[in-house]
Amino acid sequence: MSPWIIIGIVLAVLVIGMVVLYFVGNKMQKKQLDQKEQINAAAQPTSMFIIDKKIMPIRDAKLPKVVMDQLPKRYLKAKVPIVKAKVGPQVVTLIADDAIFEDVPKHGEVKAMVSGIYLVGVKTLHSKTRKMQQQEELDEKGKKKKGSFRSRMAKRQADYQKQLSAELENRKTKEAEKEEKAKRKAEQARAKKIVD
Description:
The chain has helices spanning 3-42, 65-70, 127-136, 149-195; strands spanning 44-57, 79-87, 90-96, 108-115, 118-124. With 196 residues, the chain is an alpha+beta fold. Strands 1-2-3-5-4 form a five-stranded mixed beta barrel. The longest helix has 47 residues, at 149-195. The chain is extended, with a radius of gyration of 24 Å. The model has no long low-confidence stretch (mean pLDDT 81).
């Protein structure tokens, strides 16, 4: 067998694999955005005091038993951003969204958007908490800390998600404008027929 035939076959397989990954990735991305929309729609505002935040495996997070029972076993070792907070008289463990995990202060009162056990949005209430958070981000020399690889990748992913959701929102508004124009044209055509 000629080496060119082998190279051609390998290239064909790689191209087919890339095309399949592209379509599967697009489908999964749309599914994830739909899930985020549902979570954001069910979110409720709550005032809470943040006790601690960490990135840890789910099995060590001490989540409610109902959640742990529904979780597939392959996700038990997955590391997720966990926030312990005091909501009213009780202490709860929440899973934070990657996009907002860096914005959550370690100790401080916040106004948060919570959907079930998911922390979707957070807004710091006191200026002292913001100042403490900014000081934590600086190292001894007064420069901003570089952060871990995971935190940088999570921030980058959050930026891409925001950009993608903005693009999808822009597409939806353009499609709505097109539909509105089509309805107006149809109404004008009906009006002309009635007049004629």
